[in-house]
UniProtKB/TrEMBL annotation:
<dbReference type="Pfam" id="PF00440">
    <property type="entry name" value="TetR_N"/>
</dbReference>
<dbReference type="InterPro" id="IPR001647">
    <property type="entry name" value="HTH_TetR"/>
</dbReference>
<dbReference type="Pfam" id="PF17925">
    <property type="entry name" value="TetR_C_20"/>
</dbReference>
<dbReference type="InterPro" id="IPR009057">
    <property type="entry name" value="Homeodomain-like_sf"/>
</dbReference>
<keyword id="KW-0238">DNA-binding</keyword>
<dbReference type="InterPro" id="IPR041642">
    <property type="entry name" value="KstR_C"/>
</dbReference>
<protein>
    <submittedName>
        <fullName>TetR family transcriptional regulator</fullName>
    </submittedName>
</protein>
<feature type="domain" description="HTH tetR-type">
    <location>
        <begin position="17"/>
        <end position="77"/>
    </location>
</feature>
<dbReference type="InterPro" id="IPR050109">
    <property type="entry name" value="HTH-type_TetR-like_transc_reg"/>
</dbReference>
<feature type="DNA-binding region" description="H-T-H motif">
    <location>
        <begin position="40"/>
        <end position="59"/>
    </location>
</feature>
Length: 196
């Protein structure tokens, strides 16, 4: 038996959106200081000035909160990339440049990066909508970097998925100390050649 889709949530009011932004900023700040374990829902609620019950209405668990934090960070990256697009001479070079810029941002805040990646890794089906949003945003960032003028072909979308998987895996291996940034760069550049 398949589950029926959840009804679309009503858009947030300006006040609710401001509250949500405070919560996400607090989550990023706590994670940046101490990683996944430092993000405690009670402390997030207190630091962002909301009741604990309110926090749970926005984000049912810490994993939901940290996946939403990753979405927020990717949206900021996407905005930055739109203002300062990659300058590589071909799509593969532009995508590799874009993903390495994202990696440098992660390097500046390794605890935050680790918390967000762990949340993605721990996410179960209850977080699938949020994880899908992160995936769609990552796809959009890669497609923008490619500089396509038309609709991507199925082959291009398949290459983008492989690049996304490589990027995620490279993040995990770098965060666990099993890969250097130089190795990450080589792996990403190799995967990006799929779109040449």
């Amino acid at each position: 038996m398949t589950a029926s889709p959840k009804p679309a949530a009503a858009p947030l009011t300006e006040r609710q959106e401001a509250r949500r932004r405070r919560i996400l900023a607090t989550s990023a700040q706590l994670a940046g200081r101490g990683g996944f374990d430092a993000v405690q829902m009670r402390e997030v609620a207190e630091s962002s000035g909301v009741a604990l019950g309110t926090l749970y209405r926005y984000f049912p668990s810490k994993v939901h909160l940290l996946v939403a934090t990753m979405q927020d960070q990717l949206e900021r990256l996407h905005d930055t990339l739109r203002k300062r697009p990659p300058t590589g001479e071909d799509p593969a070079a532009r995508v590799a440049e874009t993903l390495m810029r994202a990696f440098r941002a992660m390097q500046r805040e390794p605890h935050l990066a680790d918390a967000m990646v762990r949340a993605l890794t721990f996410a179960d089906r209850s977080v699938s909508a949020e994880v899908d949003t992160v995936s769609r945003l990552t796809t959009a960032i890669i497609l923008d970097a490619m500089g396509l003028t038309g609709t991507p072909t199925p082959e291009q979308l398949s290459a983008v998925r492989v690049i996304e998987h490589t990027w995620h895996s490279a993040l995990v291996t770098w965060l666990s100390g099993r890969a250097s940034i130089a190795q990450v760069r080589v792996d990403i550049e190799t995967a990006c050649r799929l779109i040449s």
